[in-house]
Amino acid sequence: MRRSTAILLAGSGLSIVIGGGAYLIERQRSQALDAAIERCHAESIASKDYKELHFQMDCSPADLFLDDPPFVDVQAEVVGAEAKQFQSRLWLQGALVLFGISALPWLWYTLLRRIAELRAAVSGKPPNG
């Protein structure tokens, strides 16, 4: 087996393991984020202070990300769960980058072999190996 093929297979295997683990963790953290958002909405509805002011607590992770900290209680939990979910997405992207980098040597040598075959076909000489 050629070295570039071994690098491709090792990188692919490692990428699958890292990506699979990151996907499972991302699903778990997504469920935790959904639960935190539900608790935030429930607390917003149950709170007497918010009912008197005709105001609902902001529970959207995107809106909370744009607001200034410090967050307390349930909103802090929503922001923390969103940050953890973002970190797991970075692992998924890292697995894809690892696969791409491990595929580069194989692609390079494959391209060089095809160019040598093309050169041999044009010149009429057989390739050297």
Give your account of this protein's structure.
Helix 1 packs antiparallel against helix 4. The chain has 129 residues and is mainly α. The chain has one domain. The mean pLDDT is 84. The radius of gyration is 26 Å and the shape is rod-shaped. Helix content is 82%, strand content 0%.
Shape: rod-shaped
Compute the separation of the termini in Å: 15 Å
Helix/strand/pairing class, anyone? mainly alpha
H/E element string? HHHH
Strand content: under 5%
Question: Over the alpha carbons, how many angstroms does the gyration radius reach?
Answer: 26 Å
Annotation, overall tally of beta strands = 0
Write the layout of secondary structure elements.
Elements: H1 3-46, H2 48-52, H3 61-66, H4 73-123
Helix pairs in contact: 1-4
Summarize the structure.
82% of the residues lie in helices and 0% in strands.
List keywords for this structure.
single chain; 129 residues; mainly alpha; 4 helices; 82% helix
